[in-house]
Amino acid sequence: MSDATNPTSATAPSSPGTSANTAGTPPPAGAGLSARQVQIRSLVQAAGMLPVLILLAIGFHVLGGHRFLSAQNLSIVAQQASINCVLGAGMTFVILTGGIDLSVGSILAASAMGALIVSLMGGLSWLAIPACLAVGLLIGLVNGSLVAFVKLPPFIVTLGTLTAVRGLARLMGADNTVFNPQLSYAWIGNDGINLLGFTIPWLAIIAIAVIVASWYVLRRTVLGVRIYAVGGNPAAARLSGINVPVVLMFVYALSGLLAGLGGVMSSARLYAANGLQLGQSYELDAIAAVILGGTSFVGGIGSIWGTLIGALIIAVLSNGLILVGVSDIWQFIVKGLVIIGAVALDRFRQGSGTRT
Amino acid sequence: MDQVPLDLHPPHDPQLPPPGTPLIEIRDVRKEFGHVIALAGVSLTVRAGEVLCLLGDNGAGKSTLIKTLSGVHRPSSGTFLVEGKVASFGGPRDALNAGIATVFQDLAMIPLMSVTRNFFMGREPTQGVWPFRRVDFKQCRNVTHAEMRRIGIDVRDPDQAVGTLSGGERQCVAIARAVYFGAKVLILDEPTSALGVAQTSMVLKYINLVKSRGLGVIFITHNVRHAYAVGDSFTVLNRGRTLGTYAKNEIAMDALQNLMAGGKELQELSSELGGTV
To answer: Quick one: where's region Disordered (chain A) (predicted)?
Structure first.
């Protein structure tokens, strides 16, 4: 978050007004922040929605008859958040470059179909997970090459693949549900590690692993630095020698691959895949998680921890509203309003309403 | 701001070619985009330790020419020599590797990113072995801080966003970055056009300093005054053609202004307006 230390003054144009700086007067506001202040500021920004998450959890615990904060329920929430978390991680990479990937829900369905079909192939059933990931990666590469090399707008490309891949998923199973009661990797979706009496679901462990790996790539590697640079200003990134198409290719391929991983997780949980219903509107939940996490739609600003918190908020809302006994119809309305309200609150707190 | 005294005439950098050596030579370079002729035969020579000012009105082909020199466009025809060898760049990276660094007016920096990250953008130093190879942020910070002090810009925190620097400081950071990464030729695209008086003199001072170190500089501007302040020779572009190249002792500032603006018509207008243009 250290890049986004001061969005207000950072966006100020270099008007002659700021020229006073060289003449010995104090630099513009924000320039004189000490390292410590910058650290605190970035901590506050990274924490972002954490207070909202905690308040929601306490609220549901009190209103829902003290059932929300039980070990069993928290394990369920973790499972519910995990797939969205994995999709949101891929989405974070894409949105950081200033793009969008609307196709992740459809990719999840198509890759889960692929996994189930391969798992029923007798001797080849061990290839189910690789096949699932490969389908995701392949569609991600298609998205990436259309955006990076054909230079089509990401929204249009992934809107196209959203529809086309959904059709592909239905085609793969001849519009039927593919079911495998002996699914070899079903443990991923239903087991967990027993730790001090708690069972931590594998789904949650996978999600955390993806988040940590994403953090490492974004924050520590050259590739991560370049992803932020491309999102900050693609033309400047290109002129400084960064291979922008390769960076774009990577983020869409990764988003596809992680959607494939989401396919593994979701088919493991269900022992089945359905081309029509599986992953329907998951892309919107993933985008909501990223936006709740404070990542800018313009690109170049954001963090993966925010996405984790965003995904948890969405899962807590879904789970908590059921516990409190709110009807399905009202759940949609409440969820939508909370997303808008939370982001509005965040903007208000940061005192910069100018950026999206 | 702390004023670190600036050494205006540093010794010649022994790693650079001796002053006067031609670094870039282009002869009769043409560039066409479909039917549009952007460059209709441009020739110029950039020498080590000299500032070549490229003057021309809007639409004269300055932008196309620098984009060609910096590897963004390929020339349609003509000779393009870098240090005496034929150059063919596939992209900005090739030009950078050949020692040609371009500081574009608006595209030099990413305002939301820190000074450090901007300084090392595209050339981040790494440590560790793959798959744990990571950016050496500590080295980045130290180098940036030291380089900023050398050019007299006191960044209290190298992690502050570039957007918090003034326009002149940004240009100087971009130039310092190019020099640090071993540029032999520096192409500056209207570095002073959006700046106030104090900042302009800061940038011009720094251009002079870079020249003393032995780099060749192409300084693009449409302000004759700024050009005359630092330039050793002047090439005037008009409608995609070079109108001529003049050494500083061959041409006066007024003559240069007239040449650039298309001569007689402007002179008449200028006298009508009381000589203020």
So the answer is: 1-30
Domain count, chain B: 1
Find the mean pLDDT for residues B245-262.
81
Model confidence over A278-332: pLDDT tens digits?
Answer: 999 899 999 999 988 888 888 888 899 999 999 999 999 999 999 888 888 998 8
pLDDT tens figures, A87-141: 999 999 999 999 999 999 999 999 999 999 999 998 888 899 999 999 999 999 9
B122 vs A237: CB contact, 8 Å cut-off? yes
- Given the cut 0.95, state whether the ipTM is greater than it: no
Cα torsion through B174, B146, B4, B206, rounded to 10: -30
User: How many A-B residue pairs are in contact by the CB < 8 A criterion?
Assistant: 156
Tell me the two tokens of residue B113: 């990113």
User: How many Å lie between the alpha carbon of A283 and the closest alpha carbon of chain B?
Assistant: 28
Token duo for residue B145:
């801080």
Which CATH number do you get for residue B77? 3.40.50.300
Distance from CA of A303 to the nearest CA of B (A): 14
Structure tokens belonging to residue A148: 């990076």
Which chain B positions have a beta carbon within 8 Å of A30's beta carbon?
Answer: 160-161, 164
Whether residue B6 is contained in a domain is answered as: no
Q: Which is it for the CA torsion B65, B71, B77, B83, positive or negative?
A: positive
> How confident is the model over A62-92, as pLDDT tens digits?
988 888 888 889 988 999 899 999 999 999 9
**Domain, as residue range, for B74:** 22-113+182-272
Residue A164: is it exposed, middle or buried by C-beta count within 10 angstroms (0-12/13-18/19+)? middle
The pTM (predicted TM-score) of the whole model is 0.84
Distance from CA of A228 to the nearest CA of B (A): 8
Q: Is residue B140 part of a domain?
A: no
Closest CA to B140 of B152, B154, B122: B122
Nearest CB among A23, A242, A301 relative to B112 is that of A301
Q: Please report residues of A whose CB lies closer than 8 A to that of B171.
A: none
pLDDT surpasses 90 at A35: no
Taking a contact as any Cβ pair under 8 Å apart, which residues of chain A between 18 and 37 contact chain B? 18-24, 27-28, 30-35
Query: Rounded to an integer, what distance in angstroms lies between the CA atom of residue A348 and that of residue B104?
Result: 35
CATH number of the domain at A49-347, please? 1.10.3470
Domain positions in chain A = 49-347
Q: Where are the alpha helices (DSSP H) in chain A?
A: 7-10, 35-47, 50-63, 71-96, 104-119, 128-148, 154-172, 187-190, 202-220, 222-232, 234-239, 244-270, 282-292, 304-324, 328-350
Which residues in chain A are contacts of B126 at CB distance < 8 A?
A: 222
Report whether pLDDT(A8) > 60: no
A215–chain B Cβ distance below 8 A for any pair: no
**CA proximity to B68, closest of B204, B210, B187, B193:** B187
Q: In A, which residues are within 8 Å of B104 by CB distance?
A: 236, 239
Q: Does a structural domain hold residue B119? A: no
Q: Which residues of A touch B134 (CB under 8 A)?
A: 216, 220-221
**Closest approach of chain A CAs to the CA of B34, in angstroms?**
20
> How far is residue A217 from each of residues A44, A213, B29, B86, B133, measured CA to CA in Å?
22, 6, 43, 39, 10
Please report whether residue B97 resides in a domain: yes
